[in-house]
Design goal:
The chain is about 35% helix and about 10% strand. The protein is an alpha/beta fold and about 180 residues long. α1 packs across α2 and α4 packs across α5.
Amino acid sequence: MIVAVRHPRPAIPAGICYGQLDVALADPPAPAAKALIDRLAPQRFDRIVASPMRRAWQLAEAVAEGLGLSLDAEPRLQELNFGAWEGIAWDAIPREEIDAWAADPLDYRPRGGETVAELASRVEQAWREATARARHELWITHAGPMRCLYALTQGLPLARCLDRRFAYGEVLELTPPS
């Protein structure tokens, strides 16, 4: 089984596109790590894996230390790369680009970025490798990868899950579809 967790609130103003922009957490990670460890007890994990983005990695380091486990970086768990949109306000992105994305949410590529279908492919590859290991893993990641994992494990089309919200720190227990 894999337990996926979205990172806590990042240190960036609301309304800014920050997919692969490497921002830190807004608050020290220790309290969030303790709360997560307490919430997941008495589960025992074989491995902790995290996106290398600071906002996920900072929490993962604190959790790994608290549980006495090693931590592995998994670049495939990074958020969607929004390319030229990274670091700018959503309402400053040209309307025609947002409209094009809305018309083709799985396959539209922001300038210099990646498509949601590419995100889903890399997340699915990481998922398949992890489930083949048959270990109990804790993944610290982002909302985009969590949407992909949710669709994959629920047997739903990804397009139906793109509006699924994941709160900061939300936990998702994942098992392969039967």
